[in-house]
Amino acid sequence: MTFTGDLCVAWAGHEAGHHYTVAGNMLVGPQVVEAMARAFEAAAQQGEALSACLLQGLEAGQQAGGDKRGKQSAALLVASPAPRMYHNLRVDGHPNPVAELRRIYDLVVEHARQIEQEYGQEGLRLFSRVKY
């Protein structure tokens, strides 16, 4: 069940799918949420990891017009029993934050692959632990 709210800005909305929801306000219109949902679904059907599905959704939303106030930040946060370094990334104050998030994500995914090749699954698990 989803509910965007009665007192939101001129356009605010959401879309719910199988095991996901997309919601937004301050967007250029409903096409942003629709594009995000379609991209997420397509990535999931291709067997992509949740982090990749979410990032593809963000990219599609930006391409569909994104936030009506312009570009400022982008973030990716995945809660997982097996956390990875690329599950918690954020870009702030960048002229193209979604593209920068993609660039960083790809770098960190490749770094994780290298760690796994060199140190195995256990090494990757230890290296990926959340550190405070």
Give the total of beta strands: 4
Shape: elongated
Structural class estimated from helices and strands: alpha+beta
Main beta sheet, described?
2 strands, antiparallel
- Give the mean pLDDT: 92
Low-confidence blocks of residues = none
* SS summary, helix count: 3
How much of the sequence lies in strands comes to 15-25%
Give the strand line-up of the largest sheet.
Answer: 1-2
- The Rg value, from CA coordinates, equals 16 Å
- Intertermini distance: 34 Å
Number of domains: 2
What string, H for helix and E for strand, traces the elements in order? EEHHEEH
Q: Roughly what percent helix?
A: 40-55%
Primary descriptors:
132 residues; 3 helices; alpha+beta; two-stranded antiparallel sheet; single chain; 47% helix
Protein described:
The chain is α+β, with helices and mostly antiparallel strands. Helix content is 47%, strand content 17%. The strands form two sheets. The chain has a two-stranded antiparallel ribbon. The protein has a two-stranded antiparallel sheet with strand order 3-4. Helix 1 (30-45) runs antiparallel to helix 2 and helix 2 (50-63) packs antiparallel against helix 3. The longest helix is centred in the C-terminal third of the chain and has 32 residues, at 97-128. This is DUF1028 domain-containing protein. Pfam families: DUF1028.
